[in-house]
């Protein structure tokens, strides 16, 4: 059974069309934005959609995303604590 | 004194074939649009991850301009004048479909045809005039008049003009680089001749 971190990496690669990126290429503590994966503001919106669609988490405060989308580990922690599905 | 302009180079992408003023440069039997676009991306050995996030129309625009601009040194004032008859309908439909569950922000940003002009400008660092017209069919007069006004007024040293259409997975791309440099004489007739050469 794959763990949440791996599941998240696979979902992010698929949802954000990260061609030529493998789950193993993304470190659990690597920054998702800026110097890390280099995601942009539209990607952030797609991640918000992903949280709601896959885990039933609706972000009411967009500013929250800055704390959640720091890394795969941070996202996984938040999902474990708040998921409804 | 009236200045003469020329079709310096052109590219066509249609039915799995890509050709330019010299010859056919790519041929594929791939029917799936996404797979076809990826195969052209690989063929051109492009290294531009942003490409994969674009909609089909923008991908076609990037691939067409890449083929033209790679062969020709481009000035940052090269204008872009494009047209089609389907606008961004292909992506509009995909976005509408996504709204039945979770609306896709990544699709939404491409629900305008002129986004392709922005993508091309970003990739090639153009700081130029651009316009995207919706016309019923290929309109050589519109392209010729607009292009000539930009060149004669000195707003642009060269213009990329043409037809960039995508509907129901079928694509029809014909892009011309118009310049004072001598090649094919630039006229409505020559534009029509080139566009309709294999489009009858």
From TrEMBL, chain A:
It comes from the Bacteria. Residues 2-83 form the Carrier domain. It holds the Pfam family PP-binding. It comes from Salegentibacter mishustinae. InterPro entries: ACP-like_sf (IPR036736), PP-bd_ACP (IPR009081). This is Acyl carrier protein. NCBIfam families: PRK09184.1.
From TrEMBL, chain B:
This is 3-oxoacyl-ACP synthase. The lineage of its organism: Bacteria, Pseudomonadati, Bacteroidota, Flavobacteriia, Flavobacteriales.
């Amino acid at each position: 059974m794959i763990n949440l971190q791996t599941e998240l990496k696979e979902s992010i690669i698929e949802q954000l069309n990260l061609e030529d990126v493998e789950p193993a290429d993304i470190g659990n503590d690597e920054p998702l934005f800026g110097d890390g994966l280099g995601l942009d503001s539209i990607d952030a919106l797609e991640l918000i959609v992903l949280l709601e669609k896959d885990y039933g988490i609706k972000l009411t405060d967009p500013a929250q995303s800055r704390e959640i989308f720091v890394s795969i580990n941070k996202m996984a922690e938040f999902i474990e604590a708040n998921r409804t599905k | 004194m009236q200045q003469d302009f020329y079709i310096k180079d052109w590219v066509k992408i249609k039915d799995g074939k890509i050709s330019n003023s010299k010859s056919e440069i790519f041929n594929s039997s791939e029917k799936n649009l996404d797979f076809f676009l990826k195969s052209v991306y690989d063929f051109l050995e492009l290294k531009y991850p942003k490409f994969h996030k674009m909609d089909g129309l923008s991908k076609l625009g990037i691939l067409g301009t890449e083929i033209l601009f790679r062969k020709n040194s481009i000035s940052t004032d090269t204008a872009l004048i494009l047209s089609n008859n389907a606008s961004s309908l292909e992506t509009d439909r995909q976005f509408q479909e996504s709204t039945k569950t979770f609306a896709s922000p990544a699709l939404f940003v491409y629900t305008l045809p002129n986004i392709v002009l922005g993508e091309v400008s970003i990739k090639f660092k153009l700081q130029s005039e651009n316009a995207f017209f919706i016309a019923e069919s290929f309109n050589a007069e519109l392209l010729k008049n607009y292009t000539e006004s930009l060149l004669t007024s000195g707003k642009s040293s060269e213009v990329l003009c043409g037809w960039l259409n995508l509907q129901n997975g079928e694509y029809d791309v014909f892009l011309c680089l118009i310049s004072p440099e001598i090649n094919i004489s630039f006229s409505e007739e020559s534009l029509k001749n080139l566009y309709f050469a294999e489009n009858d």
